[in-house]
């Protein structure tokens, strides 16, 4: 007697008119014949492989189902009880149980194997040189049409109270309490430009070679890299910054997009009262005392243009981690209180910022304010 069960580390997906079994542990996709889902349902718990014959009183049909089940077992879509694959899946199920099956499916489907092919920089460059001619990348910077634009003060080095890196690293703390004083616009402007503005290349221009303004004033670029104060996978910089001004000198309360190319704020003319703002940021009451929130969103097309494999989804999270830590340190250097949180109600913020969740993701926010007593 051989007991088998449907693998717990795979998923059925409908792709191009075919039912496909996606084994995310071994990165295999197998197209299934019509009716196979009946066999899979039969083995949702461990049962004797021969029990499949009970599915039909017709001998020929019963033999067909048995042959189908045997093939599924040979391909480890059905796994053998206490076999190596079962033991492997048990360990994974136990470790990932608190986060559920979709989290483990994402992780293992983007996990590289020992034999995963890796591309060289030369191969990437050769391919991109050709690709850019027929499939230009999405712009590294963009502006939102139909918005009121607010010019920001130029970056002012005088806002930095602490300039020594080691000193700032040791001073950095998460502080979820803020004073009543408004955030100075000069400080906000300097922080935004330092964190998200483009940096000069070694050869001098402010932005990379190939960067131009289209007729609508939108900055576009070739595949060549953009430089900023935070690292980004492939220099794609998918993270956009939105400022929610709650108590900032010279700014009407509400949501703004930071147009990094020309250092302006684009007013979205959407705002939330404190109760709804707190609700959007996970019911964390201390948000209602902040001077401003910096929302980090990810434009996935920027990374997808260069990297078509799903593992790169991980780099979107790393990108926000790098950038939000830079903002942490800058706020500390300016003597502000700051914290970061990813406890967000994405849908509420998508509506506020105008993000389409199909390709423009809400990933986190830095909450900033003046210290009490200032």
Outline:
With 374 residues, this protein is an alpha+beta fold. The protein is built from eleven helices and 15 strands.
Q: Look at the structure and give the mean pLDDT.
A: 92
Shape: elongated
Total count of domains: 2
| Shape-level CATH architecture of the largest domain | 3-Layer(aba) Sandwich
Uncertain segments of ≥5 residues (pLDDT<50)? 203-222
CATH level 4 superfamily of the largest domain: NADH Oxidase
Biggest sheet features: 7 strands, antiparallel
By oligomeric state, this entry counts as: single chain
Strand content: 15-25%
The CATH class of the largest domain turns out to be: Alpha Beta
Which sequence of SSEs, written as H and E, runs from N to C?
EEEEHEHEHHHEHHEEEEEHEHHEHE
Quickly give the structural class. alpha+beta
- The N- to C-terminal Cα distance equals 77 Å
Roughly how many Å is the radius of gyration? 26 Å
CATH topology descriptor of the largest domain: NADH Oxidase
Number of helices: 11
Explain how this protein is built.
Residues 171-365 form the Nitroreductase domain. This is SagB family peptide dehydrogenase. With 374 residues, this protein is an alpha+beta fold. It folds into two domains: 3-109; 137-369, NADH Oxidase (3-Layer(aba) Sandwich). Helices cover 33% and strands 20% of the residues. It is built from eleven helices and 15 strands. It has helices spanning 36-42, 59-74, 84-96, 100-109, 121-134, 165-171, 185-196, 274-280, 300-306, 313-333, 346-353, and strands at 3-6, 10-15, 18-23, 28-32, 47-48, 78-80, 148-151, 212-213, 219-220, 239-245, 254-259, 264-267, 292-299, 337-341, 360-369. The strands form four sheets. It has a seven-stranded antiparallel β-sheet with strand order 7-12-11-10-13-15-14, with helices on both faces. A hairpin with a 2-residue loop joins strand 2 and strand 3. Helix 7 (185-196) packs antiparallel against helix 10 (313-333). The protein is elongated, with a radius of gyration of 26 Å. Residues 203-222 have low confidence and may be disordered.
């Amino acid at each position: 007697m051989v007991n088998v069960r449907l693998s717990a580390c795979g998923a059925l997906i409908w792709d191009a008119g075919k039912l496909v079994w996606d084994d995310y542990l071994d990165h295999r996709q197998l197209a299934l014949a019509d009716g196979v889902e009946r066999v899979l349902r039969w083995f949702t718990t461990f049962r004797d492989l021969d029990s499949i014959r009970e599915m039909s009183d017709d001998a020929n049909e019963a033999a067909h189902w048995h042959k189908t089940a045997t093939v599924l077992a040979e391909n480890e879509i059905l796994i053998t009880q206490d076999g190596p694959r079962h033991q492997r899946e048990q360990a994974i199920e136990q470790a990932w149980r608190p986060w559920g099956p979709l989290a483990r499916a994402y992780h293992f489907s983007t996990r590289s194997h020992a034999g995963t092919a890796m591309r060289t920089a030369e191969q990437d460059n050769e391919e991109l040189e050709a690709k850019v001619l027929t499939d230009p990348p999405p712009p590294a910077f963009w502006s939102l049409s139909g918005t009121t634009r607010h010019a920001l003060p130029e970056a002012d080095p005088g806002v930095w109270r602490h300039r020594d890196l080691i000193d700032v690293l040791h001073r950095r703390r998460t502080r979820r309490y803020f004073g009543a004083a408004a955030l100075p616009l000069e400080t906000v402007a300097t922080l935004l430009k330092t964190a998200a503005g483009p940096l000069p290349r070694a050869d001098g221009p402010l932005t990379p070679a190939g960067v131009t303004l289209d007729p609508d004033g939108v900055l576009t670029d070739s595949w060549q890299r953009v430089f900023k104060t935070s690292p980004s996978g492939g220099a794609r910089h998918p993270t956009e910054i939105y400022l929610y001004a709650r108590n900032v000198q010279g700014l009407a309360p509400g949501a703004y997009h930071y147009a990094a190319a020309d250092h302006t704020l684009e007013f979205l003319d959407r705002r939330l009262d404190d109760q709804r703002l707190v609700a959007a940021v996970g019911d964390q009451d201390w948000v209602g005392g902040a001077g401003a929130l910096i929302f980090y969103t990810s434009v996935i097309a920027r990374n997808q243009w260069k990297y078509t494999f799903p593992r790169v989804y991980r780099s979107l999270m790393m990108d926000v981690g790098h950038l939000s830590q830079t903002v942490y340190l800058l706020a500390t250097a300016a003597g502000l209180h700051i914290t970061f949180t990813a406890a967000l109600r994405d849908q509420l913020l998508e509506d506020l910022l105008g993000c389409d969740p199909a390709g423009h993701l809400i990933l986190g926010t830095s909450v900033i304010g003046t210290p009490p007593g200032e």
